[in-house]
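Consider the following assembly input.
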Amino acid sequence: MSDITKLSLVDTVNNIKNKSISCEEVTSAYIKRINKSKKLNCYIESDFEQAINKAKSLDNKSDKNKKLFGAPIAVKDLFCTKNLQTTASSKILKGFKPQYESTVTSKLWDQDAILLGKLNCDEFAMGSSNETSFYGNVINPYRNKNDLVPGGSSGGCSSAVAANLTVSTVGTDTGGSIRQPASFTGIVGLKPTYGRCSRWGIVAFASSLDQAGPMTKNVKDASLMLEVISGYDQKDSTSSKKNSENFLNNLSKNIKGTKIGIPKEYVVEGMSKEIQKLWDKGIEICKSLGCEIINVSLPHTKYALPTYYIIAPAEASSNLARYDGVRYGFRSKGNDLIEMYENTRGEGFGREVKRRILIGTYVLSSGYYDAYYLKAQKVRSMIKKDFDDVYKEVDAILTPTAPSSAFAIGEKTSDPISMYLNDVFTVPTNLAGLPGISIPAGYDQNNLPLGLQVIGRHFDEQKILDISYALEDEIKFKASIEDWWINE
Amino acid sequence: MTITKDTVKKISKLSRISTNSKFEEEMIKDLNSIIKFVDQLNELNIDKVEPLSSVVNEKATLREDEVKKMNAKNDILKNSPEDNENYYVVPKVIE
Amino acid sequence: MNNKFNYYLKGKKGEYEVVIGLEVHAQILSEAKLFSPSATKFGQEPNSQVSLVDAAMPGMLPVINKFCVEQAIKTGLGLNAKINNFSIFDRKNYFYADLPQGYQISQYKNPIVGEGKVILDMPYGTKEIGIERLHLEQDAGKSLHDQDPNNSFVDLNRSGIALMEIVSKPDLSSPEEVSVYIKKLRSIMRYLNTCDGNMEEGSLRADVNVSVRKKGSKDFGTRCEIKNMNSIKFIQQAIDFEAYRQIELIEDGKAVNQETRLFDNKKQETRSMRSKEDAHDYRYFPDPDLLPLKLDSDFIENIKKKLPELPDQKKQRLINEFKLSSYEAGVIISDKETSAYYENVAKNSDYKLASNWLTVELFAVLNKQNKNISDSPVSSINLAKLINLIKNNTISGKIAKTVFEEMVKTDGDPEKIVIDRGLKQQSDPKELEKIISKILENNGDKVKQYKSGKEKLFGFFVGQAMKETEGKGNPNLINDILKKMLK
């Protein structure tokens, strides 16, 4: 088989199970391609020797029933992986080798997946373009005149899946970090309901918003990955007691009669005609599949981003206090403890991370708490209520994933607000804890992929997977990447 | 509300992040534009709204009072930049 | 007894009252820590009881220990306090070497226990001290600063152990009341088994808020907080020093600064902790890793049902059951072990004598040997036996003291000691009559003097009789016989 790395996750595993290919062949094919794809800068750490050894041992294993048998998978560098450097793409965690494995990644290895390595991302997942990484920006396999960003913060993930450098991956999504990069690279990205997947062992950004989820080549793969990584974990107090479900087996293209909401507030200023056209196309397909289209209102949508940019930095300022040079990672010099702290954190964090720590510290500080943090938590209640109300009428909501296609590297780095606006369609779901999925839905005039987002009720991932599966079947999106970066 | 140089210095100190004047200038600009952006929330009347305490309405998980055996010292000190006789070592704390 | 309270401090320009409030930090007795499954034993090798959570490794999350919640509720009930079925864990953000997360998980606006009260038995009557709140929080690790000139050493064994912070209202008015208050809290928690109250090991510590005001004034002065005290004696000394310092400032027309101070017990003074003042802004906010703690009424009721007898209840029962005075009962119930000891003795002998022997004789020995009742050299069974020997006239009270001395040395069985040493009381009237008539014969002149009115010679004859019986003569019988024969 010449194009092993082009296979979907489900096909790869099936091919291994029916012995068309061996685990070792698959893993070697990926390693070979990864080695030739350094230009994209997706991988920041790898363990190929271990990967090949595991592949060999799986080939000798008689029980090949596990759900991800032999699938070579790299994960976002936010997941702690035992004995393999984990940095969250930050200098401050340089050299850190966790003595534990995150719950989500252990679930992958428990299903006989093979760890390839760690994927680049924005530093501490703070960014929408993968440009804040200490390890440099990732390049999108799609390009026009310029090199483009792969989206962020899970940019190494999106680029790696699109460029066939991992068969699937898990990213994390705090305000759109799975869905926006999926949209920028023509892949599927699913942010599950808050609490669906354990956060244990994932480097925290904003605890009340963070959620791990799959990034895959298609909807079936996403369903399979979700059923593997979800489930209650007693080590995470916020993880839901709900059991995982058989999302893949239950997947159905029959969405006749489904009520789909179209929120008028998602028509935002400056959104391109192409995005509106894509959205209209999605609506038409839903209608043709027998869905009922209902115009709905989410009146506080406009306030989602300002709310997010108070809550997320506030939580981050506290979550990142543990990076102090005492117990792990980078330590700078200092004549006394305080000086050591200040130098370590001053040199160890990049500018975007420092900016958010400072904003977060400010909105929590004495005299400002009520005006900012408390107010934001109240508005967050209103945003959640908007969704609760709408879900009395509809089963799911259809929107674009991002207001634009992938932009050029460096294009938005000078103005934090213009960068933040990228997440305008994805942030509300995080604030409300809802599941959302982005699927590739077409190309813009520059031949860059664009995504559509389906948002569901709490814990109703099956519904949004079904809708996406039906849409995917109709849209028939074809990746159009030439291997321009390959270095033989 | 505006962020001044003093504000940047104060919150940098609270956050234990070293600064220099270039950084401070950048932050004054960035933080003011972010604050202006989030000040949009002032348009809303929130008097009667309860702050959100969790998005999922589940109860906190409670753990039983059981000790788990672990290879603590190894796991804990393995990554430390400096340790001595099982203590973490840090530059002198000035009280 | 002095029935009126007066603790006024004299300044140059008048008398002052001192107003004291306490924040007591009590380590909860539990196997595992508040948010992690590591052990809580004291005095282990450094960093040997530290989990990934306690060391704040990336991605680690806290999970609440249910038993610690129960312990806090029990303590709250012991303080006659309101238990809140909705409480929230907040993060208190600050940097310190022994605070690995960079924040302490505590409870700020919504504590698990609300207002309550504690009753103090003072020589001038009972006094009620209001409890403001009790909340749960994590303890910090420990930093050692004197091992090395350039470095500090950090041990995280203590990091994450559950603490209850018990905040009193500013109802305490003297160092003596503070001492009684702390002992009372400790006693309640020991009865409940929620905290061992060991101040030397730091499982009970206090921050003391002190202010002064003119005698009779109802306004509060500016207070200072003396941090991290772990000895009742030092707390009392610190309060006195601090109160006089504030009086001096006021009389000199200077302002008292609201600040955190540290007590130096060698210099016997408090000094400002400027490092603590350094722009402290804790940026409390609800910990997003923990959902609000919601307790069912059933959960609280079940704990209430299983609550053991508390000191105040036990005191009332001892007064009713054993007719003890309020003072005696108060002394006996002050700690759980003493009251258990007393009840053992009282139930097996005579409750009145039991109280005397325990609070006078045994307490004196324990004091001298610097021991607790739990390591008493005399067991409760043996003390009961001794009291029974007095009651059934086997030995006199005086001989009993000799026997007791022997018991202290050997924890011997008093019955055996009496037999071995031939200390049994001589209570045979015929024998005693013989001895006494011989004494009267030999002292004819004194008998004459007695009969002619020198009645105080009676004591001489008793003394002679005791001497002849080597102290074993039954004193009541000797008296009776003498009176009869000297008629």
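Residues 9-304 of chain C form one domain. Ask yourself how this observation constrains the way the partners meet.
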